[in-house]
Amino acid sequence: MLEKQTQQQTAILVVDDEESLRDTFQFFLRNQGYAPVVTAQSYDEAISELDKYNFDLIISDIVLGSHSGIDFLRSIREKNIDCPVVMITGYPNVETAAEAVRLGAFDYIPKPVEKDTLLKIARLALKQQQLEQEKKAVEQEKERYRVFLETVFKSVTDCIITVDANLRIMDMNPAARLLFNELHTGPVDNSTIAALCAKKEYEPFKNDLLKVLKSGVEITQHRQECHTTSNQVKVLSVCTAPLQGAAGSPDGIVVVIRDMSNPESIATGRRSSFHRFIGESDVMQAAYTMIENVGRVDLTALITGESGTGKELAAEALHQESHRKNRPLIKVDCTAIPENLLESELFGHRKGSFTGADRDRMGRILQADGGTLFLDEIGDISHMMQLRLLRFLQESTFYPVGQDTPITVDVRVITATNVDLKEKVNKGEFREDLYFRLRVIDVMLPALRERGKDITLLANYFIEKIAPKISKSINGISDQALEKLYNYPWPGNVRELKNVIERACVLCEGPSISTTELPPEIVDYSDQATIAHEPTLPEQEPAPQNIQPAFPDSDLSAADRIMLALKKTGGNKAKAARLLQIDRTTLYRKIKEFNLDLSRLDM
Asked: Which of 44, 349, 476, 517 can bridge 507 by disulfide, Cβ–Cβ 3.0-4.6 Å?
Protein backbone atom coordinates (compact mmCIF):
# COMPACT_ATOMS: atom_id res chain seq x y z
CA MET A 1 0.00 0.00 0.00
CA LEU A 2 1.38 3.39 -0.98
CA GLU A 3 1.86 5.70 1.96
CA LYS A 4 1.38 9.45 2.31
CA GLN A 5 3.17 11.47 -0.37
CA THR A 6 5.63 14.30 0.14
CA GLN A 7 4.68 17.88 -0.72
CA GLN A 8 6.01 17.39 -4.26
CA GLN A 9 4.04 14.13 -4.57
CA THR A 10 0.50 14.89 -3.48
CA ALA A 11 -1.92 12.04 -4.25
CA ILE A 12 -5.30 13.14 -5.62
CA LEU A 13 -8.22 10.92 -6.68
CA VAL A 14 -10.69 12.18 -9.33
CA VAL A 15 -13.94 10.21 -9.61
CA ASP A 16 -16.37 10.92 -12.47
CA ASP A 17 -18.29 8.77 -14.94
CA GLU A 18 -17.49 11.19 -17.78
CA GLU A 19 -14.12 10.40 -19.30
CA SER A 20 -13.64 13.91 -20.70
CA LEU A 21 -14.10 15.49 -17.27
CA ARG A 22 -11.77 13.00 -15.62
CA ASP A 23 -9.08 13.66 -18.20
CA THR A 24 -9.54 17.45 -18.00
CA PHE A 25 -9.32 17.54 -14.20
CA GLN A 26 -6.29 15.23 -14.30
CA PHE A 27 -4.57 17.48 -16.87
CA PHE A 28 -5.23 20.68 -14.87
CA LEU A 29 -3.99 19.16 -11.60
CA ARG A 30 -0.88 17.56 -13.08
CA ASN A 31 0.08 20.85 -14.68
CA GLN A 32 0.14 22.36 -11.19
CA GLY A 33 2.68 19.76 -10.07
CA TYR A 34 0.32 17.44 -8.19
CA ALA A 35 1.25 13.78 -8.61
CA PRO A 36 0.03 11.15 -8.77
CA VAL A 37 -3.43 12.18 -9.97
CA VAL A 38 -5.47 8.94 -10.11
CA THR A 39 -8.84 8.66 -11.89
CA ALA A 40 -11.80 6.32 -11.42
CA GLN A 41 -15.00 6.11 -13.47
CA SER A 42 -17.29 4.30 -11.00
CA TYR A 43 -18.03 3.81 -7.33
CA ASP A 44 -16.48 0.31 -7.28
CA GLU A 45 -13.33 1.44 -9.09
CA ALA A 46 -12.96 4.37 -6.69
CA ILE A 47 -13.32 2.10 -3.63
CA SER A 48 -10.61 -0.14 -5.12
CA GLU A 49 -8.25 2.82 -5.52
CA LEU A 50 -8.69 3.72 -1.84
CA ASP A 51 -6.95 0.46 -0.97
CA LYS A 52 -3.94 1.32 -3.13
CA TYR A 53 -3.22 4.91 -2.15
CA ASN A 54 -3.37 7.12 0.88
CA PHE A 55 -4.93 10.14 -0.81
CA ASP A 56 -4.40 13.75 0.20
CA LEU A 57 -7.51 14.96 -1.69
CA ILE A 58 -10.55 13.33 -3.31
CA ILE A 59 -12.69 15.07 -5.97
CA SER A 60 -15.89 13.16 -6.79
CA ASP A 61 -18.96 13.67 -8.94
CA ILE A 62 -22.27 13.38 -7.10
CA VAL A 63 -23.58 10.90 -9.73
CA LEU A 64 -21.70 7.60 -10.05
CA GLY A 65 -23.94 5.20 -11.99
CA SER A 66 -25.94 3.03 -9.60
CA HIS A 67 -24.34 4.78 -6.66
CA SER A 68 -24.10 8.41 -5.68
CA GLY A 69 -21.17 10.53 -4.59
CA ILE A 70 -22.85 10.68 -1.20
CA ASP A 71 -22.57 6.86 -0.98
CA PHE A 72 -18.90 7.18 -1.86
CA LEU A 73 -18.37 9.92 0.74
CA ARG A 74 -20.08 7.76 3.37
CA SER A 75 -17.79 4.81 2.48
CA ILE A 76 -14.74 7.08 2.76
CA ARG A 77 -15.69 8.06 6.29
CA GLU A 78 -16.48 4.45 7.23
CA LYS A 79 -12.91 3.59 6.25
CA ASN A 80 -11.67 6.34 8.61
CA ILE A 81 -10.07 8.23 5.75
CA ASP A 82 -9.85 11.85 6.86
CA CYS A 83 -8.56 13.61 3.73
CA PRO A 84 -10.69 16.47 2.31
CA VAL A 85 -13.40 15.53 -0.20
CA VAL A 86 -14.78 17.96 -2.78
CA MET A 87 -18.19 17.06 -4.30
CA ILE A 88 -19.13 18.15 -7.86
CA THR A 89 -22.64 18.06 -9.31
CA GLY A 90 -24.64 19.28 -12.28
CA TYR A 91 -27.86 19.22 -10.23
CA PRO A 92 -27.30 20.99 -6.92
CA ASN A 93 -30.04 20.77 -4.31
CA VAL A 94 -30.36 21.51 -0.64
CA GLU A 95 -30.73 17.88 0.49
CA THR A 96 -27.57 16.54 -1.14
CA ALA A 97 -25.58 19.61 -0.12
CA ALA A 98 -26.68 19.21 3.51
CA GLU A 99 -25.83 15.50 3.51
CA ALA A 100 -22.42 16.18 1.97
CA VAL A 101 -21.67 18.77 4.64
CA ARG A 102 -22.89 16.43 7.40
CA LEU A 103 -20.48 13.76 6.19
CA GLY A 104 -17.63 16.25 6.25
CA ALA A 105 -17.22 17.29 2.61
CA PHE A 106 -14.74 20.15 2.27
CA ASP A 107 -16.71 21.90 -0.46
CA TYR A 108 -19.58 21.43 -2.93
CA ILE A 109 -19.08 22.80 -6.49
CA PRO A 110 -21.74 22.97 -9.22
CA LYS A 111 -20.93 22.23 -12.88
CA PRO A 112 -19.56 23.52 -15.14
CA VAL A 113 -16.36 23.75 -13.12
CA GLU A 114 -13.91 26.42 -14.21
CA LYS A 115 -10.19 25.64 -14.15
CA ASP A 116 -9.40 28.46 -11.72
CA THR A 117 -12.19 27.35 -9.37
CA LEU A 118 -10.97 23.74 -9.39
CA LEU A 119 -7.35 24.68 -8.67
CA LYS A 120 -8.30 27.20 -5.98
CA ILE A 121 -10.48 24.68 -4.13
CA ALA A 122 -7.78 22.00 -4.45
CA ARG A 123 -5.14 24.36 -3.08
CA LEU A 124 -7.32 25.40 -0.11
CA ALA A 125 -8.32 21.81 0.66
CA LEU A 126 -4.71 20.60 0.62
CA LYS A 127 -3.59 23.52 2.76
CA GLN A 128 -6.24 22.72 5.36
CA GLN A 129 -5.24 19.07 5.25
CA GLN A 130 -1.62 20.00 5.88
CA LEU A 131 -2.56 22.23 8.83
CA GLU A 132 -4.78 19.52 10.31
CA GLN A 133 -2.01 16.93 10.00
CA GLU A 134 0.55 19.22 11.61
CA LYS A 135 -1.84 20.05 14.45
CA LYS A 136 -2.60 16.37 14.93
CA ALA A 137 1.11 15.52 14.93
CA VAL A 138 1.84 18.12 17.61
CA GLU A 139 -1.02 16.83 19.77
CA GLN A 140 0.20 13.26 19.36
CA GLU A 141 3.71 14.27 20.41
CA LYS A 142 2.36 16.10 23.45
CA GLU A 143 0.41 13.00 24.43
CA ARG A 144 3.43 10.75 23.90
CA TYR A 145 5.51 13.15 26.00
CA ARG A 146 2.89 13.10 28.76
CA VAL A 147 2.79 9.28 28.73
CA PHE A 148 6.59 9.17 28.73
CA LEU A 149 6.86 11.46 31.74
CA GLU A 150 4.16 9.49 33.53
CA THR A 151 6.05 6.25 32.86
CA VAL A 152 9.31 7.73 34.16
CA PHE A 153 7.50 9.25 37.14
CA LYS A 154 6.10 5.85 38.14
CA SER A 155 9.15 3.71 37.38
CA VAL A 156 12.09 5.54 39.02
CA THR A 157 13.18 4.34 42.45
CA ASP A 158 13.74 7.87 43.78
CA CYS A 159 10.77 9.57 45.43
CA ILE A 160 9.31 12.39 43.34
CA ILE A 161 6.71 14.78 44.75
CA THR A 162 5.19 17.96 43.34
CA VAL A 163 3.92 20.44 45.94
CA ASP A 164 1.90 23.63 45.48
CA ALA A 165 2.54 27.00 47.13
CA ASN A 166 0.50 25.92 50.20
CA LEU A 167 2.66 22.79 50.66
CA ARG A 168 -0.16 20.54 49.51
CA ILE A 169 0.90 17.54 47.42
CA MET A 170 -0.23 17.76 43.79
CA ASP A 171 1.24 14.40 42.76
CA MET A 172 3.64 11.73 43.98
CA ASN A 173 5.09 8.56 42.51
CA PRO A 174 4.73 5.08 44.09
CA ALA A 175 8.20 5.29 45.68
CA ALA A 176 7.20 8.48 47.52
CA ARG A 177 3.97 6.92 48.74
CA LEU A 178 5.91 3.95 50.19
CA LEU A 179 8.37 6.28 51.94
CA PHE A 180 5.61 8.44 53.44
CA ASN A 181 3.90 5.30 54.75
CA GLU A 182 7.08 4.69 56.77
CA LEU A 183 7.42 8.28 58.00
CA HIS A 184 3.82 9.31 58.64
CA THR A 185 1.25 7.73 60.93
CA GLY A 186 -1.80 9.23 59.22
CA PRO A 187 -3.18 8.63 55.73
CA VAL A 188 -0.89 9.52 52.82
CA ASP A 189 -2.74 12.27 50.98
CA ASN A 190 -2.24 15.82 49.72
CA SER A 191 -1.74 17.12 53.29
CA THR A 192 1.15 14.77 54.16
CA ILE A 193 3.97 17.24 53.43
CA ALA A 194 2.32 19.93 55.55
CA ALA A 195 1.88 17.41 58.39
CA LEU A 196 5.55 16.41 58.25
CA CYS A 197 6.69 20.06 58.14
CA ALA A 198 4.78 20.71 61.36
CA LYS A 199 7.19 18.39 63.20
CA LYS A 200 10.38 19.94 64.61
CA GLU A 201 12.74 17.34 63.09
CA TYR A 202 11.54 18.33 59.60
CA GLU A 203 12.12 22.05 60.14
CA PRO A 204 15.22 22.15 57.80
CA PHE A 205 13.12 20.46 55.10
CA LYS A 206 10.32 23.01 55.60
CA ASN A 207 12.83 25.88 55.42
CA ASP A 208 14.14 24.56 52.10
CA LEU A 209 10.62 24.41 50.66
CA LEU A 210 9.81 27.96 51.74
CA LYS A 211 13.16 29.27 50.47
CA VAL A 212 12.63 27.75 47.01
CA LEU A 213 9.08 29.10 46.86
CA LYS A 214 10.33 32.58 47.70
CA SER A 215 13.53 32.71 45.64
CA GLY A 216 12.78 30.36 42.77
CA VAL A 217 16.35 28.99 43.16
CA GLU A 218 17.03 25.26 43.31
CA ILE A 219 18.57 23.73 46.45
CA THR A 220 20.56 20.82 45.09
CA GLN A 221 21.09 18.47 48.02
CA HIS A 222 20.53 18.32 51.76
CA ARG A 223 20.79 15.17 53.85
CA GLN A 224 18.02 14.96 56.41
CA GLU A 225 17.85 12.54 59.32
CA CYS A 226 14.33 11.42 60.20
CA HIS A 227 12.60 8.70 62.21
CA THR A 228 10.20 6.12 60.82
CA THR A 229 7.03 5.11 62.62
CA SER A 230 8.96 2.03 63.85
CA ASN A 231 11.62 4.40 65.34
CA GLN A 232 14.34 3.57 62.80
CA VAL A 233 16.61 6.37 61.57
CA LYS A 234 16.69 7.13 57.86
CA VAL A 235 19.07 9.50 56.07
CA LEU A 236 17.33 11.11 53.11
CA SER A 237 19.03 13.06 50.33
CA VAL A 238 16.59 15.83 49.39
CA CYS A 239 16.77 17.99 46.25
CA THR A 240 14.25 20.83 45.94
CA ALA A 241 13.55 22.79 42.75
CA PRO A 242 10.94 25.36 41.67
CA LEU A 243 7.98 24.27 39.55
CA GLN A 244 7.77 27.17 37.11
CA GLY A 245 4.42 28.64 36.17
CA ALA A 246 3.40 30.38 32.96
CA ALA A 247 4.55 33.77 34.27
CA GLY A 248 7.99 32.42 35.17
CA SER A 249 7.46 32.56 38.94
CA PRO A 250 7.31 29.34 41.02
CA ASP A 251 3.83 27.82 41.18
CA GLY A 252 5.11 25.08 43.40
CA ILE A 253 8.01 22.76 44.11
CA VAL A 254 9.45 19.51 42.78
CA VAL A 255 11.05 17.43 45.53
CA VAL A 256 13.29 14.45 44.77
CA ILE A 257 14.20 12.23 47.73
CA ARG A 258 16.68 9.33 47.80
CA ASP A 259 16.98 7.02 50.78
CA MET A 260 20.73 7.10 51.52
CA SER A 261 20.37 4.70 54.48
CA ASN A 262 19.50 1.98 51.98
CA PRO A 263 22.77 0.19 51.00
CA GLU A 264 21.53 -0.29 47.44
CA SER A 265 20.84 3.43 47.09
CA ILE A 266 24.31 4.28 48.38
CA ALA A 267 25.96 1.77 46.06
CA THR A 268 24.19 3.12 42.99
CA GLY A 269 23.85 6.72 44.16
CA ARG A 270 26.93 8.18 42.45
CA ARG A 271 28.82 7.03 39.37
CA SER A 272 32.20 8.30 38.24
CA SER A 273 31.59 7.06 34.68
CA PHE A 274 28.69 6.14 32.45
CA HIS A 275 29.24 4.59 29.01
CA ARG A 276 31.93 6.91 27.57
CA PHE A 277 31.21 9.80 29.96
CA ILE A 278 33.59 10.57 32.84
CA GLY A 279 32.33 12.60 35.81
CA GLU A 280 30.68 12.29 39.20
CA SER A 281 29.30 15.82 39.72
CA ASP A 282 25.64 16.32 40.60
CA VAL A 283 24.85 17.68 37.15
CA MET A 284 26.38 14.61 35.48
CA GLN A 285 24.50 12.25 37.82
CA ALA A 286 21.30 13.94 36.65
CA ALA A 287 22.40 13.60 33.01
CA TYR A 288 23.14 9.87 33.49
CA THR A 289 19.72 9.27 35.01
CA MET A 290 18.01 11.19 32.22
CA ILE A 291 19.85 9.22 29.52
CA GLU A 292 18.94 5.93 31.20
CA ASN A 293 15.26 6.82 31.39
CA VAL A 294 15.05 8.33 27.90
CA GLY A 295 17.04 5.49 26.36
CA ARG A 296 14.51 2.89 27.44
CA VAL A 297 11.56 4.66 25.81
CA ASP A 298 11.41 4.66 22.00
CA LEU A 299 10.84 8.39 21.52
CA THR A 300 12.53 11.12 19.51
CA ALA A 301 15.10 12.93 21.68
CA LEU A 302 16.86 16.28 21.31
CA ILE A 303 20.32 16.60 22.90
CA THR A 304 21.30 20.17 23.73
CA GLY A 305 24.52 21.61 25.05
CA GLU A 306 27.48 23.76 24.14
CA SER A 307 30.11 22.59 21.67
CA GLY A 308 32.39 20.00 23.21
CA THR A 309 30.05 18.82 25.97
CA GLY A 310 29.67 15.31 24.53
CA LYS A 311 26.46 15.31 22.51
CA GLU A 312 27.70 12.45 20.33
CA LEU A 313 28.56 10.46 23.47
CA ALA A 314 25.03 11.07 24.72
CA ALA A 315 23.58 9.76 21.45
CA GLU A 316 25.72 6.63 21.74
CA ALA A 317 24.62 6.15 25.36
CA LEU A 318 20.93 6.58 24.45
CA HIS A 319 21.34 3.96 21.74
CA GLN A 320 23.09 1.54 24.11
CA GLU A 321 20.36 2.00 26.74
CA SER A 322 17.62 1.20 24.20
CA HIS A 323 16.26 -2.08 22.89
CA ARG A 324 17.89 -1.15 19.57
CA LYS A 325 21.44 -1.47 20.94
CA ASN A 326 22.24 -4.51 18.78
CA ARG A 327 21.10 -2.68 15.63
CA PRO A 328 22.96 0.08 13.73
CA LEU A 329 23.66 3.55 15.10
CA ILE A 330 24.09 5.79 12.05
CA LYS A 331 25.58 9.26 12.64
CA VAL A 332 25.18 12.26 10.34
CA ASP A 333 26.84 15.64 10.90
CA CYS A 334 24.42 17.93 9.07
CA THR A 335 27.00 20.73 8.80
CA ALA A 336 29.70 18.50 7.29
CA ILE A 337 27.62 17.64 4.20
CA PRO A 338 26.93 20.27 1.52
CA GLU A 339 23.27 21.29 1.39
CA ASN A 340 22.83 20.05 -2.19
CA LEU A 341 24.04 16.58 -1.16
CA LEU A 342 22.32 16.25 2.22
CA GLU A 343 19.00 15.07 0.75
CA SER A 344 20.73 12.28 -1.18
CA GLU A 345 22.90 11.44 1.83
CA LEU A 346 19.88 10.98 4.10
CA PHE A 347 17.24 9.58 1.75
CA GLY A 348 19.43 7.94 -0.90
CA HIS A 349 18.96 8.21 -4.66
CA ARG A 350 18.32 6.19 -7.77
CA LYS A 351 20.73 5.88 -10.66
CA GLY A 352 20.24 8.71 -13.15
CA SER A 353 18.15 10.86 -10.80
CA PHE A 354 20.61 13.75 -11.20
CA THR A 355 23.93 14.50 -12.85
CA GLY A 356 26.58 12.27 -11.38
CA ALA A 357 24.16 9.69 -9.98
CA ASP A 358 25.79 6.76 -11.77
CA ARG A 359 24.45 4.11 -9.39
CA ASP A 360 21.75 3.52 -6.78
CA ARG A 361 22.73 4.80 -3.33
CA MET A 362 21.31 3.64 0.00
CA GLY A 363 20.68 6.66 2.24
CA ARG A 364 21.61 6.90 5.91
CA ILE A 365 17.97 6.50 6.98
CA LEU A 366 17.72 3.08 5.31
CA GLN A 367 21.10 2.11 6.79
CA ALA A 368 19.65 2.85 10.24
CA ASP A 369 16.55 0.63 9.73
CA GLY A 370 15.81 -1.13 13.01
CA GLY A 371 18.32 1.04 14.84
CA THR A 372 19.02 4.70 15.60
CA LEU A 373 19.70 7.70 13.36
CA PHE A 374 21.71 10.49 15.01
CA LEU A 375 21.51 13.90 13.30
CA ASP A 376 24.07 16.29 14.75
CA GLU A 377 23.77 20.09 14.37
CA ILE A 378 20.14 19.79 13.29
CA GLY A 379 19.58 23.53 13.74
CA ASP A 380 21.55 24.32 10.58
CA ILE A 381 19.51 22.40 7.96
CA SER A 382 17.55 24.27 5.28
CA HIS A 383 13.79 24.80 5.23
CA MET A 384 13.43 22.23 2.45
CA MET A 385 15.27 19.59 4.48
CA GLN A 386 13.24 20.55 7.56
CA LEU A 387 10.05 19.76 5.64
CA ARG A 388 11.36 16.46 4.28
CA LEU A 389 12.54 15.41 7.74
CA LEU A 390 9.17 16.39 9.27
CA ARG A 391 7.29 14.23 6.74
CA PHE A 392 9.63 11.31 7.44
CA LEU A 393 9.11 11.61 11.19
CA GLN A 394 5.33 11.80 10.76
CA GLU A 395 5.01 8.85 8.42
CA SER A 396 8.16 6.72 8.98
CA THR A 397 8.35 6.60 5.19
CA PHE A 398 10.51 8.44 2.68
CA TYR A 399 11.21 8.68 -1.04
CA PRO A 400 14.78 8.28 -2.33
CA VAL A 401 15.66 10.99 -4.84
CA GLY A 402 14.32 9.88 -8.22
CA GLN A 403 11.97 7.18 -6.86
CA ASP A 404 8.15 7.36 -6.90
CA THR A 405 7.43 4.56 -4.44
CA PRO A 406 8.00 5.06 -0.72
CA ILE A 407 10.19 3.05 1.63
CA THR A 408 9.00 2.34 5.18
CA VAL A 409 11.57 2.01 7.96
CA ASP A 410 11.66 1.51 11.72
CA VAL A 411 14.13 4.12 12.95
CA ARG A 412 14.53 6.03 16.20
CA VAL A 413 15.73 9.57 15.53
CA ILE A 414 18.03 11.41 17.96
CA THR A 415 19.12 14.95 17.14
CA ALA A 416 21.57 17.38 18.69
CA THR A 417 22.23 21.11 18.54
CA ASN A 418 24.36 23.73 20.26
CA VAL A 419 22.02 26.56 19.24
CA ASP A 420 18.74 27.71 20.78
CA LEU A 421 16.16 26.10 18.47
CA LYS A 422 13.31 27.93 20.20
CA GLU A 423 14.97 31.23 19.31
CA LYS A 424 15.36 30.07 15.69
CA VAL A 425 11.64 29.17 15.67
CA ASN A 426 10.77 32.66 16.90
CA LYS A 427 12.91 34.15 14.12
CA GLY A 428 11.22 32.00 11.48
CA GLU A 429 14.45 30.11 10.78
CA PHE A 430 13.19 26.73 12.03
CA ARG A 431 9.77 25.10 11.64
CA GLU A 432 7.79 25.04 14.86
CA ASP A 433 6.08 21.74 14.01
CA LEU A 434 9.47 20.09 13.43
CA TYR A 435 10.78 21.62 16.67
CA PHE A 436 7.98 19.99 18.67
CA ARG A 437 8.44 16.73 16.76
CA LEU A 438 12.17 16.63 17.58
CA ARG A 439 11.86 17.89 21.14
CA VAL A 440 9.65 15.12 22.50
CA ILE A 441 12.17 14.96 25.32
CA ASP A 442 15.24 17.09 26.05
CA VAL A 443 18.59 15.71 27.18
CA MET A 444 20.63 18.72 28.36
CA LEU A 445 24.38 18.34 28.85
CA PRO A 446 26.12 20.69 31.30
CA ALA A 447 29.09 22.85 30.41
CA LEU A 448 32.46 21.81 31.88
CA ARG A 449 32.60 24.97 34.01
CA GLU A 450 29.45 23.71 35.81
CA ARG A 451 30.97 20.31 36.64
CA GLY A 452 33.30 21.19 39.52
CA LYS A 453 35.79 18.46 40.44
CA ASP A 454 35.04 16.50 37.27
CA ILE A 455 37.97 18.47 35.79
CA THR A 456 40.37 16.43 37.95
CA LEU A 457 38.77 13.15 36.92
CA LEU A 458 38.82 14.09 33.25
CA ALA A 459 42.39 15.40 33.29
CA ASN A 460 43.71 12.20 34.91
CA TYR A 461 41.61 10.06 32.56
CA PHE A 462 43.04 11.81 29.49
CA ILE A 463 46.60 11.54 30.87
CA GLU A 464 46.09 7.80 31.40
CA LYS A 465 44.85 7.36 27.83
CA ILE A 466 47.19 9.73 25.99
CA ALA A 467 50.57 9.22 27.69
CA PRO A 468 51.06 5.53 26.70
CA LYS A 469 50.21 6.34 23.07
CA ILE A 470 53.12 8.78 22.85
CA SER A 471 55.45 6.60 24.97
CA LYS A 472 55.46 8.92 27.98
CA SER A 473 55.47 7.82 31.65
CA ILE A 474 53.21 10.53 33.01
CA ASN A 475 51.21 9.62 36.09
CA GLY A 476 49.50 12.85 37.15
CA ILE A 477 49.23 16.61 37.23
CA SER A 478 50.41 19.12 39.84
CA ASP A 479 48.01 20.91 42.18
CA GLN A 480 49.12 24.26 40.76
CA ALA A 481 48.33 23.14 37.22
CA LEU A 482 44.96 21.81 38.36
CA GLU A 483 44.21 25.17 39.95
CA LYS A 484 44.85 26.83 36.59
CA LEU A 485 42.45 24.39 34.93
CA TYR A 486 39.76 25.09 37.54
CA ASN A 487 40.02 28.86 37.08
CA TYR A 488 39.61 28.68 33.30
CA PRO A 489 36.02 28.94 31.90
CA TRP A 490 36.47 26.28 29.15
CA PRO A 491 34.49 27.70 26.22
CA GLY A 492 35.37 24.53 24.28
CA ASN A 493 34.31 22.30 27.20
CA VAL A 494 35.59 18.70 27.49
CA ARG A 495 36.89 18.69 23.91
CA GLU A 496 39.09 21.69 24.71
CA LEU A 497 40.30 20.11 27.96
CA LYS A 498 41.30 16.95 26.08
CA ASN A 499 43.31 19.00 23.58
CA VAL A 500 45.03 20.89 26.41
CA ILE A 501 46.01 17.65 28.19
CA GLU A 502 47.19 16.13 24.91
CA ARG A 503 49.42 19.15 24.29
CA ALA A 504 50.71 19.05 27.87
CA CYS A 505 51.58 15.33 27.57
CA VAL A 506 53.59 16.02 24.41
CA LEU A 507 55.54 18.83 26.11
CA CYS A 508 55.95 17.13 29.51
CA GLU A 509 59.45 15.73 30.21
CA GLY A 510 58.83 14.40 33.71
CA PRO A 511 56.28 12.19 35.50
CA SER A 512 53.80 15.02 36.21
CA ILE A 513 52.25 17.78 34.15
CA SER A 514 53.01 21.25 35.55
CA THR A 515 51.84 24.77 34.74
CA THR A 516 54.81 25.06 32.35
CA GLU A 517 53.11 22.68 29.91
CA LEU A 518 49.76 24.50 29.94
CA PRO A 519 48.84 26.95 27.13
CA PRO A 520 49.49 30.64 27.89
CA GLU A 521 45.81 31.60 27.66
CA ILE A 522 44.96 29.24 30.53
CA VAL A 523 47.85 30.35 32.73
CA ASP A 524 47.24 34.04 31.91
CA TYR A 525 43.52 33.76 32.58
CA SER A 526 44.18 32.18 35.95
CA ASP A 527 46.64 34.94 36.87
CA GLN A 528 44.15 37.63 35.83
CA ALA A 529 41.44 35.93 37.88
CA THR A 530 43.76 36.06 40.91
CA ILE A 531 44.58 39.75 40.35
CA ALA A 532 40.85 40.49 40.16
CA HIS A 533 40.56 39.72 43.87
CA GLU A 534 43.54 41.84 44.90
CA PRO A 535 43.77 45.66 45.32
CA THR A 536 44.78 47.30 42.04
CA LEU A 537 46.60 50.54 41.40
CA PRO A 538 44.72 53.17 39.37
CA GLU A 539 46.96 52.67 36.33
CA GLN A 540 46.39 48.90 36.25
CA GLU A 541 44.02 47.36 33.74
CA PRO A 542 40.62 46.46 35.27
CA ALA A 543 40.05 42.81 36.04
CA PRO A 544 38.50 40.97 33.07
CA GLN A 545 35.63 39.62 35.19
CA ASN A 546 34.26 43.13 35.66
CA ILE A 547 32.90 44.34 32.34
CA GLN A 548 31.44 47.63 33.59
CA PRO A 549 34.73 49.56 34.21
CA ALA A 550 35.80 48.80 30.64
CA PHE A 551 32.49 50.12 29.32
CA PRO A 552 31.17 52.83 31.63
CA ASP A 553 28.57 53.93 29.08
CA SER A 554 25.58 51.75 29.95
CA ASP A 555 23.79 52.86 26.77
CA LEU A 556 26.25 51.07 24.49
CA SER A 557 24.69 48.51 22.15
CA ALA A 558 25.83 44.87 22.19
CA ALA A 559 27.62 45.39 18.87
CA ASP A 560 29.48 48.45 20.22
CA ARG A 561 30.50 46.57 23.36
CA ILE A 562 31.94 43.76 21.25
CA MET A 563 33.91 46.20 19.07
CA LEU A 564 35.24 48.00 22.15
CA ALA A 565 36.30 44.70 23.72
CA LEU A 566 38.11 43.69 20.54
CA LYS A 567 39.88 47.06 20.32
CA LYS A 568 40.86 46.83 23.98
CA THR A 569 42.39 43.37 23.47
CA GLY A 570 44.11 44.22 20.18
CA GLY A 571 41.73 42.02 18.20
CA ASN A 572 42.36 38.93 20.35
CA LYS A 573 38.97 37.19 20.30
CA ALA A 574 39.72 34.82 23.18
CA LYS A 575 40.62 37.74 25.48
CA ALA A 576 37.68 39.78 24.21
CA ALA A 577 35.29 36.92 25.01
CA ARG A 578 36.67 36.70 28.55
CA LEU A 579 36.38 40.45 28.97
CA LEU A 580 32.74 40.29 27.85
CA GLN A 581 32.17 37.23 30.07
CA ILE A 582 30.83 35.15 27.18
CA ASP A 583 32.02 31.99 25.44
CA ARG A 584 34.38 32.34 22.51
CA THR A 585 31.87 30.50 20.28
CA THR A 586 29.20 32.98 21.32
CA LEU A 587 31.52 35.86 20.39
CA TYR A 588 32.12 34.41 16.92
CA ARG A 589 28.37 33.96 16.45
CA LYS A 590 27.64 37.54 17.54
CA ILE A 591 30.31 38.96 15.22
CA LYS A 592 28.62 37.16 12.33
CA GLU A 593 25.11 38.04 13.54
CA PHE A 594 25.90 41.78 13.79
CA ASN A 595 27.97 41.65 10.57
CA LEU A 596 30.80 43.48 12.36
CA ASP A 597 33.58 44.95 10.21
CA LEU A 598 36.74 43.88 12.06
CA SER A 599 38.90 45.91 9.67
CA ARG A 600 37.75 48.95 11.71
CA LEU A 601 39.91 47.69 14.59
CA ASP A 602 42.97 49.12 12.84
CA MET A 603 41.46 52.62 12.75
From this structure: 517
